[in-house]
Amino acid sequence: MSTTFEPIVGRYLSFEIAGRNCRVYVEEAGSGIPLVCLHTAGADSRQYRHMLCDPEITSRYRVLAFDMPWHGKSYPPEGWQGGEYRLTTELYAETILAFCKALELDKPALIGCSIGGRIVLHLANKHSDKFRALIGVEGADYQKPWYDTSWLHRGDVHGGEVCAALVSGLIAPQSPDLYRHETLWQYMQSGPGVFKGDLYFYRVDSDLRGRLNDIRTEVCPLYLLTGEYDFSCSPEDTLRTAASIPGAKVAVMQELGHFPMSENPAQFRKYIMPVLNEIHKNG
Fold this sequence. Notes:
Oligomer: single chain
Order of helices and strands: EEEHHEHEHEHHHEHEHH
Radius of gyration: 17 Å
Distance between the termini: 40 Å
Shape: globular
CATH class: Alpha Beta
Structural class: alpha/beta
């Protein structure tokens, strides 16, 4: 087995979010159009390592995947010990915009999965002028909660193992075991209460039904991609959402679940490459 370095460069970036100083970890690779990647609830930017290592993507895109504060290798904001983590729509959007501003990104493209797919719709509705294109993976305007979060942050429960168990059924049966278990391992390493805090945004604070009337896809193209095996954000949820947005482009991805970029990167590539090719072609 030969020894090789992957092309990913990781470093820390300190900037202010909602009036609080944050030290955020970001990985990047490639050059060209900035492509910001948003991970799922309770996880981190490792979900995008296959895109970061794809030479066809990085030859045209500067791929940037960052860990949200509280996630992965990012720290909570200064003074975090005085309160409970709770992600809101306002804080989520401000975090993304502050990250783009700190790196002086000029109209980046952005891809987000799960909670990232939901915030994509909010960004398309309220901040489309700041982006070149928006890609919502496993995203819809609303999903009826199918799980109880009250027991996700308890002293007598191993939060990481419970989080992984909760999401394990969302991975498609065709996904290779190697990538299935990598995806679940990321959930096992989530910080105390982080998954529950993210789900506040997903379950409580981001019902976008009937609130997406300001999306203008002629200003910022919107792509929605959902795996056929996702029962959290089902294909029906995404198709319903896309039908309410003139010009939105939608695809149901075969043999994929809720974490397509990490659970089966080769299969996901069949769907994401045409989207990236189109965004690059349109400049």
